[in-house]
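2 proteins. here.
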Amino acid sequence: MASELEVGQIVEGTISGITHFGAFVVLPNGRTGLVHISEVADAYVKDIKDYHKENDKVQVKILSMDANGKIALSIRQAQPKSAAVGTREHGGPRRDHRPSHERRAQQVSFEDKMQRFMRDSEDRLQDLRRNTDSKRGGRGA
């Protein structure tokens, strides 16, 4: 493989370090690039260590190289595209891979919880008002 890297090229590298914001990858030519945490996987990534560890070999796509020598990389864009559920024709990968009826069930569940919270909150406020009003009335008002 040529030692000169180009934007858009997919190469294999080795993860040399992991931080809270991304992973550093040593490329075939010895230079190091950064995979931002948002470019690790299609799903939300809270901790990169859930996906990779140091010294893992990974396929990365070179997103950009600037004049200062910084190289931006992507693991998720280096993965082969498939026509499977989870990708959209325009707009990139979907973030929520659950079936739509499961997403609706979660929304209904959240709305139910919110209504219950509002009811409980209103009941507590009424109890507090009654308690406060009865104390005021007892002072000769």
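next one coming up
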Amino acid sequence: MTDIIETLGDSTFKQLKAMILDGRLKAGARLSEKKFADSLGVSRTPVREAIAQLVSEGLAVRSAGGTPVVNSISLNDIMEILHVRSLLECEAARKAALSAQPKDELLSLKSIISGFLTGPRPSAEDHTAIDMQLHSAIARLANSKLLTELIDGLKIKTRMYDQGSLPDRMIPGCHEHIALIDAILDQDPDSAASLMKAHLANARFSIISHIYHPF
């Protein structure tokens, strides 16, 4: 029975997390155990576990009255997140370039990203998934579990903020990712760190530009 509840809890968490990240659950939305138990066809127990996990990952917070709601990410938050990401991910890129681990995943991702540029335009969801996978792969190559966990958590919060709303970043972002992958494959730590820093600075600039010039 415990295994079933844990499995349902994991599944429920993934479903609620996806709803938050793709914008179906907006910032401030109440996370009602009964509502989601009914809509997802599960008992309240896995919903309660899923909500607790969302809170622990920063995707949800508890209001003053104790009601869990979807967390909101402000412009100041995202600027700070991108600053911290730059510090962490530049170091991760540098270490990844020096790593002796196999880099087959990077080669595979480079092929997919190149296909985004030469083939049909990918959906925002597909592009975001590859973006998440690449940054996570680079962090893992740095061979630090803590660094990987921190980067993955901050990347999710970045996604909570933009939710694929920056289509102008798709093509330049792909070129930046390919250059970054090449630097890591060439075992050039200085270039890898510099390219990661520029990539995140460009993302920061794009977010600010989108806020003040949304159309």
